[in-house]
Write a structure and sequence with these properties.
Layout lengths: L18 H14 L5 E2 L15 E6 L4 E5 L5 E2 L4 H13 L20 H5 L10 H12 L4 H16 L5 E2 L1 H10 L1 H12 L7 H12 L1 E3 L1 H7 L1 H4 L14 H14 L5 H7 L4 E3 L4 E6 L3 E6 L2 E2 L6 H14 L7
Antiparallel strand pairs: 1-10, 2-3, 2-9, 4-6, 5-6, 7-8, 8-9
Helix pairs in contact: 1-13, 2-4, 4-7, 4-8, 5-8, 5-9, 6-8, 7-8
Bound molecules: glutamine.
Length: about 325
């Protein structure tokens, strides 16, 4: 005979889960998993990373931070930088940006060239490589590459409130030596007049902003404005207007994981952006900014355990934007 007075642990009055305990639990579970995916090797320097690493940092609306695993180890943020270059470029040129780049999911791999010919050199969205290169080109206009790169790096340092963040030049040089696909994409767009600057300059800035190294803690801090209507709730400092934060989140949800974006929305249910360094930045609007890192990737080039960990987090915290 069930005790009618005993509280139902899953009922409406259940206690809010303890974020710190949940994050610790997930980090422990991830450490034990043997399915880790494959570390990216097409950028030779990234292949040297320890496939066993796992880190997670979650910052809630009150600024409480919960961390687990290797949350203070810097890793190559790669395509996660595209969220921040998009934010910067929108600040510079506003909605004119959408003349150069679309905002539809591509359903193709991140480095695909197939849609560019049919669509006159206009990339589908700012998060596939072609789109991010076009965004970098907009930031570069009117500047020397070194200045543009300095502006991007300073923006990251400002958002993360940490002036120690740097670019890993070995990773940038490694990609510069082997980035034949990205060169092809950039040259192809240039032939349609979609890039204004010399291809080498634009690619140089692109490779270097992808090579920014950050920890989960720094990345989660940098993403806070996206979770809180465009402003950092601690400092009250506005980074973008609320409407822009909402729209960046929408593009992260629909395009942030390339041809794995549907699966990420289905399983995790948050706007997120992955990078081939194995990081993912995810945003629980009004609730938290989250960064995870596990270098092994799935077939679409997204962190395998990063996604598994985020799925566990949103489920246990009830944070999916689509409901419980
Ligand atoms: N720098 C990487 C590239 O251009 C970024 C790709 C990614 O992280 N998905 O290939």
């Amino acid at each position: 005979m069930p005790n009618r007075d005993a509280p139902d642990p899953d009922g409406p009055n259940r206690k809010a889960p303890n974020l710190k305990a949940v994050v610790r639990e997930i980090a422990d579970e991830m450490r034990q998993r043997t399915d880790r995916g494959e570390v990216a090797s097409y950028i030779p320097e990234l292949a040297r990373v320890d496939a066993g690493a796992f880190g997670m940092a979650v910052i809630d609306a009150n600024g409480n931070i919960a961390t687990g695993g290797d949350s203070d180890v810097p890793f190559s943020i790669q395509s996660i930088s595209k969220v921040f270059t998009l934010t910067l470029a929108l600040g510079k040129v506003g909605d004119r940006l959408w003349r150069r780049v679309g905002r539809e999911p591509s359903g193709s791999p991140f480095n695909s060239i197939v849609q560019l010919e049919r669509e006159c050199g206009i990339p589908r969205n700012p998060f596939i490589n072609a789109g991010a290169i076009a965004v970098t080109d907009l930031i570069l206009s009117g500047h020397q590459p070194r200045e543009a790169l300095g502006e991007i790096l300073r923006f990251m340092q400002f958002l993360a409130d940490d002036a120690s963040i740097t670019i890993d030049n070995a990773v940038a040089a490694s990609e510069q030596r082997t980035g034949f696909r990205n060169s092809a994409l950039a040259n192809y767009m240039k032939s349609f007049g979609v890039l204004d600057n010399p291809v080498d300059y634009t690619l140089g800035v692109y490779f270097h902003h992808c090579a920014i190294a950050m920890t989960c803690r720094q990345l989660a801090t940098a993403g806070r404005f996206l979770a809180h209507l465009g402003r950092n709730p601690d400092t009250g400092m506005s980074v973008v207007p609320p409407e822009r934060a909402r729209r960046i989140n929408a593009i992260m949800l629909t395009c942030g994981h390339y041809d794995g974006s549907g699966e990420f929305a289905y399983r995790v249910g948050l706007p997120g952006k992955s990078g081939v360094g194995g990081g993912i930045l995810a945003v629980a609007p009004g609730k938290a900014s989250i960064a995870v890192w596990s270098p092994g990737l799935d077939a679409a080039g997204n962190s395998h355990l990063g996604r598994v960990a985020l799925e566990a987090l949103t489920k246990r915290m009830g944070w999916s934007i689509f409901g419980q």
